[in-house]
Amino acid sequence: MSTATPVRTSSMAQALNSALRDALREDPTVHVLGEDVGALGGVFRITDGLTAEFGPDRCLDTPLAEAGILGTAIGMAMYGLRPVVEMQFDAFAYPALEQLFSHVAKMRNRTAGRLPLPITVRIPYGGGIGGVEHHSDASEAYYASTPGLHVVTPGTVADAYGLLRASIASDDPVVFLEPKRLYWGKAEFDPAAPVEPIGRAVLRRTGTSAVLITYGPSLPVCLEAAEAAKAEGWDLAVLDLRTLVPFDDETVCRVVRSLGRAVVVHEASGFGGTGAEIAARVTERCFHHLAAPVLRVTGFDIPYPPPMLEHHHLPGVDRILDAVARLQWEDRG
Amino acid sequence: MTVLDHRHHTGLPGWLPGATAPRTDPAPLLPDVSPVRVLGTPGLEKYDPALLRELYRRLVVGRRYNQQATTLTKQGRLAVYPASTGQEACQVAAALVLGERDWLFPSYRDTLAVVSRGVDPLEALTLLRGNAHTGYDPLASRTAPLCTPLGTQAPHAVGLAHAARLRGEPVVALAMLGDGGTSEGDFHEALNFAAVLRAPVVFLVQNNGYAISVPLSAQSAAPSLAHKAVGYGMPGRLVDGNDAPALHGVLTEAVERARGGDGPTLVEALTYRIDAHTNADDATRYRTEPEVAAWREHDPILLMERSLRELDVLDDRLVQEAADEAEALAARMRAEFHADPELDPMALFAHVYAEPTPQLREQAAQLSAELAAEAEVQH
Predict the structure, then answer these.
(1) Do the domain assignments include residue B129?
(2) B365 and B325, same structural domain?
(3) Which residue among A42, A212, A233, B207 has its CA within the 20 to 30 Å range from the CA of A90?
(4) Residue B1: what pLDDT?
(5) Does the complex come out with an ipTM higher than 0.85?
(6) By the 8 A CB rule, do A70 and A96 touch?
(7) Same topology for domains A8-189 and A202-328, yes or no?
(8) Alpha carbons B153 and B175: distance in angstroms, whole number
(9) If one looks up domain A202-328 in CATH, what number appears?
(10) How many CB pairs (< 8 A) connect A and B?
(11) Confidence of residue B26 (pLDDT cuts 50, 70, 90)
(12) Is 3.40.350.10 the CATH number for A8-189?
């Protein structure tokens, strides 16, 4: 990361672009491929300028076929390259699921470690940007429940850079979920400053009443809710998971044990979602430290709504505070 | 300097508003309507006798391998065996046309090609024995794992060949598919990517007439699978899949074309699966005995032996030598597969990730405790 420039104000989209650019510069085996990643720079401009700087061999506009893109990346990785694949939108990644589940996730295992696949699959995911149908799915549970994949999702600008660099450098395949509604939010960050590694959760806000456990697109909502909760007399901590796989049981349990109350927040549907897994893990491990059941605030169990109705679906501050209110405070003491 | 040159790409190549001239003529890409045949034709005389003997020897050994693996399955020594009996010419030719640095991308029915490429049967058959997924080292043998989800290995072949080309290394990838696999989306995507990238790939479709039970006419309305090539902008070739020298010639040409930078080729080989899909299948439910009998007459080994004897490149001694080698392989397979494989349950956790996650460490500890408890009960 030595080639990066010092502290700057940057959007998450720009930070991701910098991460790709620096990875391409530093490692000749890194190759970017996807739909419209060349002259256009990707529909979100995450690959802006990469083909101009590195040429089509390194940043390749592919035919429009996601299984073909990921399947081709698998073959490239088998030959020693380190492909970074862009799926244009969350729901457009589904044609590639067979390649992802049957090959990317399993190749190391089914070859007894002889054929690892260091592939990063970048997927802009989630709603809140006014997208029409098939452009707003929160699909993390599919990936997180597939053994062999790492699942990473940044919630801050610094993590977007640092975690993408770490994902590309990882010898395991990483599904890198980019919260598209955070693409344009700006923050100061120093590319040279290391971030916590893949697999570690980070406490974004300390608190004494309860903890909101969240990740990616819901992180700013949770921080906002924690701020609003002060008026209700709650001092909420906010824990950013950053990585769904590997899951940081240690940090999650340490925080939950110290506070005794937890709400898991994500915008994906609740049934069979990551929140269910987290609530179960926390209950299994921290039962005697809990003052209330672990609650979930999630999207409804519905296909993603049309843009004019999506705000009813996405967990917002009020729904989060309602859940906090249900943490059996009356039984305190 | 880049390998890929996108500067020549335009929205409608070769076509301008109002133009009447044809776009690029696809005719040169079309295969002959009749399959290429060499056995029983004067063309056979152009072949090196040493190559013909080598093909014959491999066919005979390959047939015995298929028989022995089938027997081992009936004896419970393999979990399942999808035999390539009747398709040995495709299997052997695919292995033989590749150089040491080239890559083979087999499907689950192609273990004979893997063995013919030099992988030990004990390693090639672990998937079907059930003791491990992939028993051989793909990097050392330049052979991808046997692929079960049909057609999904085809884009891997494209990616690997593309990567080699980007590195300036003259490596060719050969993907083996069946007629059923051509219905899969991955087949289509792989051919499209290969042609667009000019990747050095050869796609060999062994058209054996059936996808388990479904005949080709119910699988595809295309009058020819080889002609599909033109839809992607690559040449198609149609060949008699039971004619080993013809296959060797057609595939060699495709491999050389790929290696020379001229891109991919689709080869359709017409053959027949003499055995059922696997030991678990009942082929009498969907095909007739006269049909099978006709194909037994068009057997790749029979055809080969007849033609080679006529040409005087094969005699009783060579036939006996091949039979002896085949029996030796079968005997070795019996000895090796009748011994129980060593199994290590703890290896289940060894290669899920480069480093086990904390959760996998916990689960490994659990299994370890269960194994210790079992051992205690047994003592």
Answers:
(1) yes
(2) no
(3) A212
(4) 67
(5) yes
(6) yes
(7) yes
(8) 7
(9) 3.40.50.920
(10) 154
(11) confident
(12) no
